[in-house]
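If you are new to this repository, start here. Below is one unmodified record pulled from the training split, so you can see the exact layout before writing a loader.
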Amino acid sequence: MTKLMIIVGSVREGRVGLPIAEWVRDEADKTGRFDIDFVDLRELALPFMDEPNHPRLMQYTKPHTVAWSRRVAAADAFLFVTPEYNYSYSPALKNALDYLNKEWWRKPVGFVSYGGVSSGTRGVVGLLPTITGLGLVRVGANVELTFGGKQVVDGVFHPQDKELSILSHELDELATLARALAPVRAEFDT
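And here is the target side for that same chain:
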């Protein structure tokens, strides 16, 4: 079973990212192919990067970093549910990425982005240099929600058929790439 980490990339009060991420989790769970680690960055509450050493060294000094490192290292694939803020990425998600280095290496990542007219895509594009530098491998299918908050009714996200179809394809890609990249990660670890 693929260990999939779903990360809620927004920590704001009243965020629509949480019900969207809960929908993503439920859809991934329905497939029966994933062991899901659901990470709400608001609950994780990582402080602004406070480690004295470069993450590449893995010489962590803070308990919150050690715990975060273990969770990320255990994951085979990632799905980031992320907003666009001011034509760019969520600072909470960027901070969570920056805490670590090798733990992300050669694992697939997909996005479910949301925002206004641009559907959060500018936030994803802003993260691309970071995910590339960390060695993450981006899948081709990504859900993009234009004004996704309008699809949240009474705290529940209501997807359209198109979004269900794209997410299904994205989950397929994540599972396939996680298996394909496992030997590459194993070779890197030796």
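Two things worth knowing about this chain: The helical segments are 17-31, 41-44, 63-74, 91-98, 121-133, 161-189. The chain has one domain: 2-189.
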